[in-house]
Amino acid sequence: MKKLTVKALVGIGMLSSISYILMLLNFPLPPFPNFLMIDFSDIPALIAALIFGPVAGILVELIKNILDYFMTGSATGVPVGHIANFVAGILFILPTYFVYKKLKTKKSMTVGLVIGTFIMAVIMSVLNYFIIYPAYTLFLNMPAMSAPEIRTVVVTAILPFNIIKGLLITLVFMLLFTRMSPWINKQGSYKNAI
């Protein structure tokens, strides 16, 4: 990995701060349980990845979750939700980045965002079933859910929620990307960062 330039470090810091603020502006989606919140904090991470490379996007995801954990804490005492958010963000931005970088068109960005949405939704469903839900019940000292109960929650709430969240982020990002793509591509062409 190449050393980070000052420009990349400043950009990652700024985008991490914006991402953290967007994470605080979360809101529930009525048909889903209240612990599932929509936020647009993956957008700055995606911008960081497009400008400075995929490691920068991962760093933005990491920094925003560390900031949120230390500023707001966690109901479990351990950052189960923050780790889940970090993994979900990576699963969303990396496929998007690699699909877009292959062709560098608006269509490839849209395709990348949709692929990223479905990869994130499916893998997060599997992780919720096997790791995240059991971790929550363990750390919250709740009675463990049976496999059919967890499966029901994953299929009826987690999977559709993540698909809707990814599609909402796709919509908002494409509105921004339509205006910002020349600037993003220009910034990315100067990168010697990561």
How would you sum up this structure, described in words?
By secondary structure, this protein is mainly alpha-helical. The chain has a single domain, classed as Arp2/3 complex 21 kDa subunit ARPC3 (Orthogonal Bundle), CATH 1.10.1760.20. Helix content is 77%, strand content 2%. It is built from six helices and two strands; from the N terminus they run αββααααα. The chain has a two-stranded antiparallel ribbon with strand order 1-2. β1 and β2 form a beta hairpin. The protein starts with 5 loop residues before the first helix and ends in a 5-residue tail after the last helix. The model has no long low-confidence stretch (mean pLDDT 92).
SSE arrangement:
Elements: H1 6-24, E1 27-28, E2 37-38, H2 42-52, H3 54-72, H4 80-103, H5 106-139, H6 147-189
Antiparallel strand pairs: 1-2
Features of the shown structure:
about 190 residues; Arp2/3 complex 21 kDa subunit ARPC3; two-stranded antiparallel ribbon; 6 helices; globular
The CATH architecture classification is Orthogonal Bundle
How large is the share of residues in beta strands? under 5%
The domain count comes to 1
Strand order in the sheet with the most strands: 1-2
- Per the CATH scheme, the topology name is Arp2/3 complex 21 kDa subunit ARPC3
The number of helical runs is 6
Q: What overall geometry do the principal axes of the alpha carbons give?
A: globular
Number of strands: 2
Oligomer: single chain
Unreliable stretches (pLDDT < 50, length at least 5) are none
**What's the CATH first level?**
Mainly Alpha
From the helix content, strand content and strand pairing, which structural class follows? mainly alpha
Mean pLDDT across all amino acids: 92
Radius of gyration over alpha carbons? 17 Å
Largest sheet, if any?
2 strands, antiparallel
Alpha-carbon distance between the termini? 6 Å
Order of helices and strands: HEEHHHHH
